[in-house]
Structures are given as structure tokens and as C-alpha cells.
Amino acid sequence: MKTAIWWIRRDLRLHDNQALTAAHETARHILPVFILDPRLLSSPYAAEKRVAFLYAGLGALNASLRERGSRLIIRRGNPLNELTHLLNETGAQVIYAEPDYSAYARRRDHQVEKQFPVEWTGSPAVHPPGSVLKSNGKPYTVFTPFSRAWKALPAPRLPAKDQVPDSISTPGTITSLPLPDVPPEQNPDFPAGEAEAQRRLRAFICSDDQPINEYAIERNRLDYSGTSMLSPYLRFGMLSARFAAAAASEKIHSPSSPEDSNGAETWLNELIWRDFYMHILYHFPHVRRQNFKLGKIAWLNDPEQFAAWCAGRTGFPVVDAAMRQLVESGWMHNRARMIAASFLTKDLLIDWRWGERWFMQNLVDGDPAANNGGWQWTAGTGSDAAPYFRIFNPVSQGKRHDPDGVYIRRWLPELSRVPNEAIHEPWHMTTELQNKIDCVIGKDYPAPIIDHTQARQRALQVYGNA
DNA sequence: TGAAATGTTGGGGCG
DNA sequence: ACGCCCCAACATTTC
Q: CB-hemisphere CA count at 13 Å for A325?
């Protein structure tokens, strides 16, 4: 075979890339193609920061392709049309691509495979949807048995180091749009590209301090970077999920000390949750629109309260810190995601879909499956969701996971002078103190927009009816 | 990967 | 020594 298209979608990497490997093994020439799809780039769920991260990732991928004598070909438009043009221009005989699982992606890919020969290979999941099923052939809807079956599959193994082809031949005649401009300083916390992803993975698992060993305990701390912060890289496949899982498995089976496997186990479990939600979205695509379970919930959907939540002005410090972290940095600690989501759906009784959309509009790592799964979990409407009566108390969550208010002060500078005793409930400060530290509640920082105790009772009532 | 309400236990103060 | 109360600490149940 002469020429193959490597259609890149959410696998912006050369390492452990099965589509690239398959193309390289069968074709003399490879066209690495990325199609900018206006349907996705201007969708109501698109996020400026995520698009910037994607563009920066395309730049990084292009750079490593150039080191191998190749380059990235950028097109813009409807993917079916663009692929038609490319196949006509180049005479390529086959397309290699990694599957994707959202409803839109599957419709798109189905159209393409009806017209052209496509070889689907690899997966953004560790174990692709369809590969983890109950003995009756049906998908799991409960996490624990899912994870048991997942772990019973052959463990993913680290691919050989020399697996990345050192030379990729790409015809020079094919035209490409220029690489999209990356707004400067857009994602300072997340430099794009697989080199950075690999560096972070190594720092997390292999470096001297090995944060993964403490992950079981420290992952819940908002004021301490105990998480891997790899989600954006996994989202765009700058890190292969299979590669990450293999690294975690290796750590579990040969830990530096026996108690160290605990952290790696816990982290692997999070990768399994990621797979679980991809499988759920694949088997039950309607979850993007509807509750997986529970009837209709009588949401209040107050637009002003929603705006306050989005802006981080609810008057509950840990919630507001989380929401400001999201908007300012494009990322939110997972514990904070649960706290913020519980507050929106339970305390404010606002439809989880509103929160889901806001997260998608702001998260660098925003992924339809994981984000939807997380929201339905917290709302109590998902498969294997938190029970409806599990309602987070924003004050006690703050005290437990940010005991000294470091996280709160990091994102809410107006509270920087509030003493530790009051940092989680600043409305308890005396007016004298408020004046003295120049942080008047209701002026410099909002008073709580609801009474949590009453809101909790109300949520139990409303959810009880559903 | 909750939190609040309710129940139980046991030590210590005290008459 | 004993019974009684209080209440913190822990356990269990409920939402």
C-alpha cells in the first residue's frame, strides 16, 4: 500500500499510538491530518481554553513530526468533505484512526466509514467500550463489578521504547492550512504536548518523591498538589491512557516499598472510572440529555443563583474558590468539582445540565463522557451515582480538605486577611473584625446566597419526590 | 467519593 | 461505696 491518512482526533501523540503504528507498518507514505471541525469549535460546549490547548498541542505534534521528516496537515470544515478532498488529492487508499465515542463523533465516523476504507485501531480508553461486558453480554452499570471485570482483562503493557517510527514520509505537495494561532499565556499551568505529558507522568510515578505513593491520602487535599494533573493530556491523547495505566500497573506490581502500591491502586482506579464513563456514554448515549435514573426532579433553576455560582460569588468560600479556579485556570481539583456540583444541584436545585455545560465551557480537560459522568454522579441521577441524600456541607468539606484555607486564599484574594478560625464561614466574623481587615461581608465578599441547613432539607424533599 | 440525628457507652464529678 | 447525672466519644441509623 502506498499512502495512508492518519486521521488525528484525540490522539495528539506519537508514542503508543496504534493508528500511527498501523499506518506506518502498512503504508509507504503517511498523511497526518487534523481537521478543524466548526461544529465542534463553535458548539455551545466549546471552551476557549480547551481550544487553545488543542491548538498548542497541534503545534507540538507538528514539531515532533517535523523532526521525523513529516508534518501536520491542517484542514478546516466538515470532516467527510475534507477527507473526500484529501483522498482525491493524494490517492490515499486507507484512513487509520482511533475511535471516539460521543454521539456526534460516532455519527461522523459512521458517515466516513460508509464512504471510505477506515481502519479503527486503538482507543482513548484503556479498554475500549464493548470489551468489558457482563457474562450476559450487557454493559455494566455499577462501577465496582465493572472495575473487577476490567482488572481481569490482560493488563496493558508498556510498549517498547523504540516503537515510535524515527522517520515518517509525508509527500510535500499536499497543502495545509497554517497551524492555528495560539493565544499567548492562555494555559500557563498546562504546556501542551506529549513531551510535557511524559514528563508529568514520570514526575508523578518515578521521581524521587513519587507523589503517586501518597495519592490515596493526598488526592483529596485542595491545598496541596497531590493529584497528577494529567487530565488535559489524557483528554487529547497527548498521553496514551493505555500507557498511563501500564505505568500504574507496573508500580502496583513492583512498588519501591510494599505500602506504596496503595497510591498506585487508587490512581489506577481513577483511570478505570474514566473508562467506566466512556463505556456508559457509549452504551447509553442518551445520558448526555437525560437522567440515567430517577424521575423528573423539580429544579428551581434560578438564573441569578446560577450566575452567582458561575462567577464564584455564592458566599461559600470553598465553592467560590473552586469556581474561580475553573474560570481562571481552566482546571478544577476533583474534590472541588464534587463540592461545587453538589452545591449547584442539591443546595441551589439547579439542573445538572447547566453545570455540565458551564464546566465544558471552561475546562481544559472537558470531556463529554467524564464530565457527564461526574455531574450525573453528584446529582444522584447517574448509573451507580451518589445516593440523592448525600449532600455535601460546603463548610465541613472546606475544613476537612483545606484546613488552613490555603486553597481558598489562593483563589479568593479578598479573603486573604480572614483569620483561619473564620475562613470557611467568614459571615461569622464580627463587624469590627470585618472592618479591621477590610473584608466586609455583603460588600467585599458576598453573604451566603442560601442557608445550607434549609437548602439541605429542601433538597431532601424535592429529591424525595423524584 | 456525606452529614445529621439518634443511640450507646463509660469516665468523672458529686452528694 | 453507691447511684445519679452529665457529656464527650464513638457507633448506628436515617435522610
A: 23
Q: Which domain holds residue A150?
A: 124-160+194-283
Closest CA to A169 of A20, A16, A387, A335: A20
Whether residues A332 and A393 share a domain: the answer is: yes
- Å from A399 (CA) to B11 (C1')? 30
Interatomic distance A27 CA / B1 C1' (Å): 47
For the CA atoms of A374, A378, A382, A388, what is the dihedral angle to 10 degrees? 170
Chain A span 318-347 residues with beta carbon within 7 Å of strand B: 334-335, 338
Residue A362 and residue A252 in one domain? no
Task: Indicate which CATH number applies to the domain containing A148.
Answer: 1.25.40.80
pLDDT tens digits, residue range A59-70?
999 999 999 999
Model pTM? 0.97
CA of A453 to C1' of C6 (A): 28
Predicted confidence (pLDDT) per residue in A278-308, tens digit:
999 999 999 999 999 988 999 999 999 999 9
**Same structural domain, A307 and A411:** yes
The reply to whether the CB atom of residue A389 sits less than 7 A from any atom in nucleic acid chain B is yes
Strand B: positions under 7 A of a protein C-beta atom: 1-4
DSSP β-ladder status, A94-97 and A73-76: unpaired
Say yes or no: A328 and A383 in one domain.
yes
In whole angstroms, what is the distance from residue A196 CA to residue A181 CA? Answer: 20
CATH number at residue A61: 3.40.50.620
Number of domains comprising chain A: 3
Residue A67 CA to its chain's centroid (Å): 29
